[in-house]
Amino acid sequence: MASVGQYLRELRERRGTSLEEISRATRVATRYLEALETDRLNELPAPVFTRGFIRAYCQALGEAPDEVLARFDGRES
Question: I need a labelling partner for 20 at 20 to 30 A (CA). Which of 34, 38, 55, 66 fits?
Answer without folding.
Answer: 66
